[in-house]
Give the backbone structure.
Amino acid sequence: MVIKNADVVLKDGVKKLDLRIEEGRIAELGKGLKGEGLDCTGLTVLPGLIDMHVHLREPGFEKKEDIASGSAAAVKGGFTQICCMPNTRPVTDNKVVVSYILNRAKEVGLCKVRPVGAITEGQEGKNLAAIGAMKAAGAVALSEDGKSVLSTGLMANAMMYAADFGLKCLCHCEDASLVDGGVVNEGYYSTLTGLKGSIRAAEDVIIAREICLAESLSLPVHICHVSTYSGVQLIREAKARGVQVTAETCPHYFTLTDAVIASFDTNTKVNPPIREEKDRLAVIEGLKDGTLDCIVTDHAPHHADDKSVEYDLATFGISGLETSFALSYTQLVKGGVLTPEELADRMSGAPARILGLEGGGIAVGAPADLTIADLHAKWTIDPAAFVSKGKNTPFGGREVFGAVRYTLVDGEIKYQG
Amino acid sequence: MLNHKDVLGLYDLSAEEIDEILSVGMSMKKLLKQNIKRLPHLQGKSVTTLFYENSTRTRCSFELAAKYMGAHVVNIAAASSSVQKGETLIDTGKTLDAMKNDVIVIRHPMGGAPRLLAKTVKAHVVNAGDGMNEHPSQALLDMLTMRENFGRIAGLKVAILGDISHSRVAKSNLFGLKKLGAEVTMYAPRTLLPTGIGQMGAKVCASREEAVEGADVVMGLRIQLERQHAGNFPSLGEYAGFYGVDDGVMRYAKKGALVMHPGPVNRGVELTSALIDGDTSRIEEQVLSGIAVRMAILFLLTKEEV
């Protein structure tokens, strides 16, 4: 198949090119390529988007999402590879669950699903999980997502042991004693609503701890969903002195501020919480200067029953796979922060590098994982139209630019919109 | 008449609406003082109190307010834990609505719960205190008491001291008093002072003397023993010594300044017993104001339908 007349986002800029796909890989890039084709005049071809932080909920919470619905949401959102977090039931802390996820994903056959294993057994923070066995079964990283490994000593051991298997720890940073039941950012709006706030330090102290461990052990570490201006600065300073730290953030942290909680809309409840304008601006600055390497969704689908309750009782999380690209494109490229090739790096190249995944760029020989979008298309986010089971988004009704038209995985069209 | 279906907080109500509740409340209080407790305003109406948190004073006050005006009153005491295991608030609300309740008075340990209920039901919802959010009827009764004593709210200086962080009363008072033109000063240990309260119009002071300086009203807020266990201050004794209000502190206030407290009081912690029982105390007066202002709220909410 030949993709014709597209604006192709390469590492060094956007070029009008044709692209030949053979046996699932990019075989040729050039002008006027002959053959049966897909006319992409007016469309932009990006390297297949990679989301390294997704909750697929299967096994265990299929009412919220399953591998089929999550994969469908992923390809609709332009994602060709997604990494799923281990807070399933049973917890993904052993090779059996890793294999189950991979098998289900293969049966579903939409996007590439890369399981992330738990750091400790049952995510209980006591014994290390079967890290070697999970790696052998196909896990691509480790995470205790949803919480931090409480014991600093155990975390140090986890980083060292994981490194033996070439795995990185993806760290959700949260000091539980500081959060202490907080459900929103502590600030003007927590006081206004009377909702219990959590201060930035609840996130920052663990970011600092993980950086200290990485520096002291000369090992890599990855910081999940950075939301604070001070966290961005901690990572920036660490990178400047050579610490092997990488980091991610999510569209809600660079799009929203905690003013949205004044409505008590439980779709704004997410962990870490949406913070203030200076945090939002710092996250954008971090994405621009590369302090924050990549954009993830932290796709956290929930059933309406989990959100149609008091704010304190509602579950944390935003369903993000189907809105991430448009929000990122609108906010960052339209907003003049990133070039299209920089956005492609934050949403594809960087995650591939961080986790050592195949893909992440458009080049001859690379897998034909491609996201083809109409960047001029303006549309309105409608949660009811989500294919994810999770309709929980604070972005309903928002106008955005950038619509995914085709998602190709290994050269096959897996989504067409 | 109120422009809102519900009374969820003083942040939402306009100065005119607050003023109207206080004016009607003043009339109700006059009747109550004449021991008139058989009014027709709520005849044929049903009022349900739905309390997910323990309360004697507020629930009794709403119940009597409704009964003095002839309403049918049902009281539901729902343990907050039952919310988590049993019926959701939305489903409970739908049930109460189906029973043709005209007003639901809700107290809930979680901020925003009355708003969730109000969105669900056709009945009028009155917030009787939600988490750390608001307690509008308490602030209105405080303001009624002030207006009764001073003839006005505008220009008064009100000092609020105590656990402001966890106090829905402090916030509702702040919103209401500022809307009607009063000045509000606050003082508390930093561990019990919420972020951003200054941006909401309170003057946050550096000492209790500064807070009380020139005040017309000094209001103490309850210090819960559990805050000591949470590490917010070392002991109730230390609190009383450094943050409590006594005669010495009151000397900075205007002569004859009123002493108020939403109750229940910890004698000798927020306020000394001498102040609680003294001539300038309006703590008991506040209780009767409470019934009057709740009568006004219930009447004004249901009036349009008569």
Chain A has one domain: 48-361.
